[in-house]
Amino acid sequence: MKKYLVEFIGTFFLVFTVGMSVRSGAPLAPLAIGASLMVMIFAGGHISGGHFNPAVTLAVWLRGKCAAKDVLPYWIAQFIAGTIAALLVTFLFAGKPPAPALHGSIESLIVEFLFTFALAWVVLNTATAKGTAGNSFYGLAIGFTVLTGAVAVGGVSGGAFNPAVGLGVFVMGLESIKQLGIYVVADLLGGAAAALAFKAVNSEE
């Protein structure tokens, strides 16, 4: 239960930061989001692995560093946390925005897949690989991957790279149901592809 609670807390603050910074129009929203993920990983990574993302959990499981029995509970904790964070953001701003953002479907699929791949690739190589075992930079590397993606393609897809974030921004009214579907499919595929690439490159592990 400790691991699942940590996954809930980390995902909650990530999605809450996304919602509050976007709804308030904060100019440094991508930095705040990347930093939120970074500090939550440093705070909880030693307990749960600091996934805070169903796509990362999938990647770490496929890589062999997450027990199969933990995958579904992790996902449940992450999705519930994203929903509660979204409801709190909506309450604090006294309602949903007038209309969800509009994004191209093909473009969103491409960039969500690529940057979720990049995120999971960085997680696997900095937080699970033997060559980087015991390092103190993994949280910074992972957080800055999300910052990079948010700046580079946030305007194309909304920059979720995380199905729990996708659910959160949908509940907030920031994204459409179609976009939520893209976040789930593209992001999980990106995480799975990163795990396969990691195993191909690090076959000795």
UniProtKB/TrEMBL annotation:
It comes from Nibricoccus aquaticus. GO terms for molecular function: channel activity. Keywords: Membrane, Transmembrane, Transmembrane helix, Transport. It is a multi-pass membrane protein. The keyword Mitochondrion does not apply. GO terms for cellular component: membrane. InterPro entries: Aquaporin-like (IPR023271), Aquaporin_transptr (IPR034294), MIP (IPR000425), MIP_CS (IPR022357). The chain crosses the membrane at residues 35-62, 74-94, 106-124, 136-160, 180-201. The lineage of its organism: Bacteria, Pseudomonadati, Verrucomicrobiota, Opitutia, Opitutales. The keyword Glycoprotein does not apply. It is found in: Membrane. It holds the Pfam family MIP. This is Porin. Belongs to the MIP/aquaporin (TC 1.A.8) family. It comes from the Bacteria.
